[in-house]
Amino acid sequence: MLSRTGTALRGMPVAATRLGMRFYAQLPLRVPVKMPNGIEYEQPTGLFINNKFVRAKQGKTFEVVSPATEEEITHVYEAREDDVEDAIAAADQAFKSGVWSDADPLVRAKALNKLAELIEEDLETIASIETLDNGKAISSARGDVQLVANYLRSCAGWCDKIDGRLINTGSTHFSYTIRQPLGVCGQIIPWNFPLLMWAWKVGPALATGNTVVLKTAESTPLSALYVSQFVPKAGIPAGVVNIISGFGKIIGEALTTHPKIKKIAFTGSTATGRHIYQNAGANLKKVTLELGGKSPNIVFADADLKATVQNIILGIYYNSGEVCCAGSRVYVEESVYDQFLEELKAATENVKVGDPFDDATFQGAQTSQMQLSKILKYVEIGRDEGATLVTGGERLGNKGFFVKPTIFGDVTEDMRIVKEEIFGPVVTITKFKTVEEVIEKANDSEYGLAAGVHTKDINKAIEVSNRVNSGTVWINTFNDFHHAVPFGGFNASGIGREMGIEALENYTQVKAVRAKLTLSGK
Ligand code: NAI
Ligand code: MG
């Protein structure tokens, strides 16, 4: 048996849970898991260090819960500072050996392509693991895993294109630059897109020749461990990729302060991002941060009403609203406001919420009890602030962390539900009269991750895109990602960009070489 506090107990009892996995005296490094859709697989539970799954040194484990059923799926080993040391030592040694950083770039490309292939071939199992652990709808999870494969392939394509430049400084010298990797990168990811965030971090770091120690989020460690078994199969040498499960305050802290870590890449809350930035600053590490948001989604009267309603739905209820760039503030031009609200309400009440393993489900479970409580608390806050609850606003059922898709109307810009990131299926809706007014409202936020503009007028679309303070603007679409298009935030939404060519800049440093030539003197 495993104790709730997480230490593997001695003894022999073997008990079966409803999900069909068995517990042993000491947590095995692989446990059988049967998922609600019938797929059975072996879940690695160890820390992935030096291309092997190993037990945490102190033998601690923690529980992994399915948010749709609130039942335990398994335990996994919990890394502590001593394990972090091991992981960093492995990554450091691999980096210094040059086996990865100095290899022909096509060696890295081949391995990343193979990794993409292995993941794509196993898409259904991986998507199901993501759904089991995170609670997201299986259709969304399949999309995530496909984006993972696409992005790894895109990174593979960059491997042999990371060039410096030749600089003309006259005939007495030969001057050029090269782009070199940074070394060991510490990467910390959240739970809303566990494997996609893994890919956004690992892909560009590996393409550019770095080695990594990545910490998954404590509520969703399973998919990254599962795909770790493909790392050696893809031909990636030992020590290049190290994956550790554990808690932010313990090993997140250890990673962000460790002198051998040259760069920190983080996705998560703005509060934690701020803290990490301070840690990294004190140690002069390079940092990229992808943080929170409160993204405006602007609807002009001339927009295609039906399509726009669907885009607003996608903007806020996709992934159960647990999306950093969720279009959580909707602004609608006054002349169509009443009609739009009516249609949005009807479409919202039609969103299929529930069993994430049902192909027809659009909105699955929230990831944790903590998120469920946070969302319901914001509903209370909205009511207290005097906003009108148009629909939703309550938990769905009493088992699993489900929330009814929620719209608040009659909001004012100073309300907390308009200002703060809720990170759930809750949207506010406001009227506007002019372009000027809506831009002012859209930009009245500490954040600046994304924005949406819905109109048939190209002039209006481009003007608003130019003037809105956000790292991404979607026109007549939303939450529409592509591996070649960079993503990241203005202001409190972050630093640096992921995906696209921009992501590579975060993982290389420029070396300038200037050779004085001995000329023939003719
Ligand atoms: P969090 O930002 O604390 O957690 C994200 C990751 O950071 C996890 O892996 C966690 O273990 C790690 N972490 C926590 N404290 C750390 C520390 N001191 N040093 C290093 N790493 C640390 O976010 P949390 O608590 O899971 O969620 C709270 C809120 O954050 C959510 O309700 C949501 O509003 C926001 N959030 C935003 C995300 C985004 O994609 N921008 C993702 C997840 C959460
Ligand atoms: Mg979980």
UniProtKB/TrEMBL annotation:
Q: Which GO terms describe its cellular component?
A: mitochondrial matrix
State whether keyword Oxidoreductase applies. Answer: yes
Ordered alphabetically, the record's keywords are: NAD, Oxidoreductase
Any idea where the Aldehyde dehydrogenase domain is? Answer: 54-513
List the subcellular locations: Mitochondrion matrix
> One MF term in GO for this entry?
aldehyde dehydrogenase (NAD+) activity
Looking up Gene3D superfamilies in the UniProt record yields:
Aldehyde Dehydrogenase, Chain A, domain 1 (3.40.605.10), Aldehyde Dehydrogenase, Chain A, domain 2 (3.40.309.10)
Question: Mind telling me which Pfam families this protein's record contains?
Answer: Aldedh
The family assignment reads:
Belongs to the aldehyde dehydrogenase family.
Q: What is this protein called?
A: KLTH0D00682p
* Origin species: Lachancea thermotolerans (strain ATCC 56472 / CBS 6340 / NRRL Y-8284)
